Amino acid sequence: MKIAVKGRVPEVRALRQARAIAHQRLQDTAAKDKARWDAIMKPQVFAIGDHVLMRHENKLSLEYTWKGPYRIINKNASTHIYQLQDLNGNTYNSWVHTDRLRPIHFTNTPTDPWYDPTTTRAAERRHLQALAHLHVFEDDQHSGEGVLSQPLAEQSLLANYASSYFTHLHAKPIYTATPPSTSSTSPSLPSPSL
């Protein structure tokens, strides 16, 4: 007695065949895309001792795209990866692929890195923490002008610190403090500079 093939068996066979065809097409397309990409991209080759910039992958909105410079101290030519060292002699933790590197040529080798996000972010945090000690309150006249609430000596110190920070950023300082006068008994409040 013969059992007739009915039900879902033919549909399952057709589905398997369709999946195999789709998988083969995906592999063919991936191979063509790789060949096209490899024809366009020529890996850069650097020598040991060359200076390079490295792409800053985790940059914040206004940070520079490239960081460094770094010096190449070792390379693996078969995989196009390089070991880098900064200008202070610190070796970068991991090996870096040539896709993330860009050559840079100097007339005079610099002694300090022109941009290092770790130290730059740490300096910005220190500046912001120092400025956080300045408490600005609205005055009673509702004019919208703030009044610093710290003691005068501390105001002067922090205002000078803020002034140097803002000058460093090519901006005008928000507040300047007047030094304490010995002749006056009442402390004077800092005046906003415009």
Description:
The protein is elongated and about 80 Å long. A hairpin with a 4-residue loop joins strand 2 and strand 3. The chain has 3 domains: 32 residues; 53 residues, SH3 type barrels, CATH 2.30.30; 60 residues, no CATH class. The strands form 3 sheets. The protein has a 5-stranded antiparallel sheet with strand order 4-3-2-1-5, with no helix packed on it. A two-stranded antiparallel sheet has the order 6-7. The chain has a two-stranded antiparallel ribbon with strand order 8-9. It is 33% helix and 19% strand. The relative contact order is 0.09. It has 194 residues and is α+β, with helices and mostly antiparallel strands.
Taken in chain order, the helices and strands follow as: HEEEEEHEEHEE
- Class by SSE composition: alpha+beta
SS summary, helix count: 3
The count of strands amounts to: 9
Largest sheet features? 5 strands, antiparallel
Count of structural domains: 3
Helical residue percent band:
25-40%
Q: How confident is the prediction overall: mean pLDDT?
A: 74
Radius of gyration: 32 Å
Strand residue content: 15-25%
N-C termini distance: 102 Å
Contiguous runs where pLDDT drops below 50 for at least 5 residues: 166-189
Name the strands of the widest sheet in spatial order: 4-3-2-1-5
**Overall body shape:** elongated
